[in-house]
Amino acid sequence: MSAAGVVSSCSRLCSGVWLLKTGMQKMSSFGFHTAARCAAKDYYEVLVLGGGTGGITMSARMKRKVGAGNVAVVEPSQTHYYQPLWTLVGGGAKQLATSARPTESVMPKGVEWIKSRVTALDPDKNCVWLENDTKISYKYLIIALGISLHYEKIKGLPEGFHHPKIGSNYSVLTVEKTWKALQDFKEGNAIFTFPNTPVKCAGAPQKIMYLSEAYWRKTGRRSKANIMFNTSLGVIFGVKKYADALLEIIKERNITVNYKHNLVEVRADKQEAVFENLDKPGVTEVHQYEMLHVTPPMGPPDVLINSPVSDAIGWVDVDKETLQHKKYPNVFGIGDCTNLPTSKTAAAEVLQAAKLCEPEGRKGFASTVGVLNGKILFYVI
Ligand SMILES: Cc1cc2nc3c(=O)[nH]c(=O)nc-3n(C[C@H](O)[C@H](O)[C@H](O)COP(=O)(O)OP(=O)(O)OC[C@H]3O[C@@H](n4cnc5c(N)ncnc54)[C@H](O)[C@@H]3O)c2cc1C
Q1: Cβ–ligand 1 contact at 50 (below 6 Å)
Q2: How many A from CA of 368 to the centre of ligand 1?
Q3: For 13-67, how does the pLDDT look when each residue is reduced to its tens digit (9 = 90+)?
Q4: Which of 297, 316, 345, 363 has the highest local Cβ count within 10 Å?
């Protein structure tokens, strides 16, 4: 395909497609990365990597712009989870099954679902590689691969989850163990952790602590629980206004906060958690627990580490105003896998999606969101 051919077909797309319009404007100065248009199903106008909150949201919006059959989502999972609900699953207020939908049912009509995993990105050739060495080319690429969990970076995990008294709301495999540990609690330390890495939903490690505290109060066991928040951070929350409000609640509910405490080991057979003091490298403290809630270290998905689309750490390197890639103008990123300076939440993504499609669009703060049957659900406060 010649550059002229690409430009003429893109011009048609540009009417009313803010994402593509932005891309076009910058492309004239960057020049094109030529892509050979392949046989049907080897090429899409818009290819989306990842069928989580960001990927499904953007595929629905892009299908409305470029038409059925022209958008595809690469997503390996058969089940789509509404992860914000896991806070309530761990707290005993919801069943895990209510957070799950078959991926097929959330894929917007007219969007093709490619049931595979992307293994490499080649933005200079406008294509990606999937499992089984399949190559898919695109005109525009949207990367929405989420963030990876690294329980294995804590000594003793993930195998420690085979023991009782320990849970983690961050994984579908361990979230129900949180509720079990909460119910089984008798007397002693209840420890809630926050790792020394970026995390998705930085509020979730605390939310389960407040839910647990309320549950033990309701069931008459509060006086038996010594509740601790052991965080790698030096503050309770990144935004001072909310940090001040949270500190009042923490005081009122008699919760202990240990700052700069990073969980490095779990001896689940002995119900011991080992924390490194980040102010004194190499110095560790052992805390006995009756219940432990682990928020794991997190990082960019493996496929993005050392990828041409990523920054030095592995996050997709995008412009914070347009979500457009800083080097490849036909590549965009959304959500937890990017280096956007927003929180890594679905709520932030709703606003990112609005920005991608309508730069002058919605303003506000969405507190929680999800995707159901291709529709975005969210509350704006
Ligand atoms: C316990 C918990 C509580 C939360 N609470 C809230 C809340 O109250 N409010 C809020 O706004 N947010 C909350 N979040 C965060 C929210 O769920 C995430 O920020 C959001 O899901 C991120 O969307 P995403 O599209 O970037 O990533 P995800 O939704 O995680 O989707 C990434 C997708 O990429 C796929 N993928 C990964 N690797 C590959 C590959 N190689 N090839 C193809 N596909 C791949 C994955 O299978 C996944 O489907 C919470 C999260 C958790 C875990």
Answers
A1: yes
A2: 13
A3: 333 334 544 443 444 333 333 333 333 489 999 999 999 999 999 999 999 999 9
A4: 316
